[in-house]
Amino acid sequence: MDDSEICLSFLVRQAWLNMRSAVDDALAPHGLSVAQYATLLVLDEQPGASIADVARVVASTRQSANELLAGMERAGLVERRPHSRDRRTQELNLTALGRQRLKAAKPSVHAREGELEAALDARERAAARTWLAHMARAGHLP
Amino acid sequence: MDDSEICLSFLVRQAWLNMRSAVDDALAPHGLSVAQYATLLVLDEQPGASIADVARVVASTRQSANELLAGMERAGLVERRPHSRDRRTQELNLTALGRQRLKAAKPSVHAREGELEAALDARERAAARTWLAHMARAGHLP
DNA sequence: GATAGATTGACAGGTTCCTGACGAGTATTT
DNA sequence: AAATACTCGTCAGGAACCTGTCAATCTATC
């Protein structure tokens, strides 16, 4: 295939774009964007996290996370209240609605992703995962 | 394994973000952005392509490609002239400068990418490539 | 304790990319 | 030949994200 000439980065980009739109489609019926879904995932695993925490986990910036969370608060998905000990930060927590939406959306996302890689065998899937995990982390050590 | 809990898409996103910044660093000395480099690659392989062609290959839109190409024309990297047969479209071609920049930058990009996945063996790299190629194409059938 | 350094959330401004629409030109159908 | 349906490049406007900066606050060192 002619993809051998093309840069490896662009192959990763195409894969990401394609998966993103697939997940977006799966998320649309639940009224969530991909970024919002990611934020819900983070806050479900780390309740009480700060805006900066969320930004770090999703590899974004404090500002982007701030704007995103403002919208999510307006939608009643999350709740921000002052931190008990650190007066700079805010504690972020899922609301009941946020938890419910996440619980409802998660199977759809997993199903859509599984559907995409259904044609590949377990060995390739596992190898891809280790490859991706490495590429996501490589270059941060020096 | 905490990777099983996290969404697969986000792993791909992180890998793409990481590779993108690495390639960006490799490209900076040559005065090129990632998008410009991609466009140079496309026009080197398909001389005389139109704006819409470029947009299709890099999975972007005509408008984005148009803006990008306007800047590259200003920088003297590409040249746009009216198509000989179709009066709607423009023929895009690399200038001598564009070809020279591409030739100079390509080894840097390949070196940086190879450096990133240096710790992985050939089997994993090959499996990742087929996985990525599949994920970049899956879901276009319906 | 006091002071320097780092961190948090917010504001302004800019970049990049996208959606939607338009006129001009081409391809396809009747 | 005429009408319809595409496709082309481009303009207007907006969404998403980033950098740079700021005061307020916490942490660490002297």
TrEMBL record, chains A, B:
One of its GO terms (biological process) is response to stress. Residues 5-137 form the HTH marR-type domain. It holds the Pfam family MarR_2. GO terms for molecular function: DNA binding; DNA-binding transcription factor activity. SMART domains: HTH_MARR (SM00347). Keywords: DNA-binding, Transcription, Transcription regulation. InterPro entries: HTH_MarR-typ, MarR/SlyA-like, Tscrpt_reg_MarR-type_CS, WH-like_DNA-bd_sf, WH_DNA-bd_sf. The keyword DNA-binding applies. This is MarR family transcriptional regulator. The lineage of its organism: Bacteria, Bacillati, Actinomycetota, Actinomycetes, Micromonosporales.
